[in-house]
Amino acid sequence: MGHKQSVDSRGKGRKNPGSSSMVQKHSGGAIISGPSLFDNLPEDCISNIISFTSPRDACVAASVSKTFESAVNSDSVWDKFLPSDYSSLVPPSRVFSSKKELYFAICDNPVLVEDGGKSFWLEKENGKKCFMLSPKKSMWITWVSTPQYWRWISIPEARFEEVPELLNVCWFEVRGGMNTKDLSPGTRYSAYIVFKTKNGCPNLGDVPAEATVGLVGQESSQRHIYFVGPTDQRRDRETRDVTRPTKRKDGWMEAELGQFFNESGCDVVDTSILEIKNPNWKRGLIIQGIEFRPTKSLFYI
């Protein structure tokens, strides 16, 4: 039986103090130590091997030894984790000291692309591409150009220069879509509407809205979503299959509209949210955009 590397709660291999040797656990339970066999490999060879893993795995591998840490930090590794078209998505005015620094900058600080029509960033764990659609430039909202129904506002925490605030409508309909060639191929994506509510979003917040997501020409997934949710417990039990919104780290709310699989990047994905059954006038919703990001696996560690 071979040896297993011991990994602590932070996902890092434990090292003997003052050396690059690894603390390893034998299959029989005995703890032994010794130099890592991989340390004998040339650094560029280690870099090449790591580039076939994932950004998350690379960060774990950096804890193995100083040799591994140096190999992980090389541009050749992080260039593989960046999308092939990253240079066209990042403003040339942003200068970085390494590809690793560039990678994490895109993950942590989304950039506006397509003349402000979309916000782009990378999923930190796997480098998959994510986008948010601008309501003004990449979405379609019924009556959004009619001042008595909607108004455009600027708020500091929004990614886009202006976002729409719902003043009063009886017909609520929001749509958005994009070409899947801009997304990562071979990836399952989830679509979300990102929003804030005011005063409980009267006549819309506690009413299930119909949401659809799908590739054009294929059957769309369908579900119902809440922007707030019912306060009546009896009614809440009757509608327990309706998706409730969740609060994000950035302070906005989001509700999942559905999922789709981007097989080859040669399709168009469409999303819609519709509520026309409630005849009362609806108000109190601020929409930041529709977001596409990789679906989290239930088995992801």
Automatic annotation (TrEMBL):
InterPro entries: F-box-like_dom_sf, F-box_dom, PP2-like. This is F-box domain. PROSITE patterns: FBOX. It comes from the Eukaryota. Residues 1-26 are annotated as: Disordered. Residues 35-81 form the F-box domain. Residues 1-11 have a biased composition (Basic and acidic residues). SUPFAM superfamilies: F-box domain. It holds the Pfam family F-box.
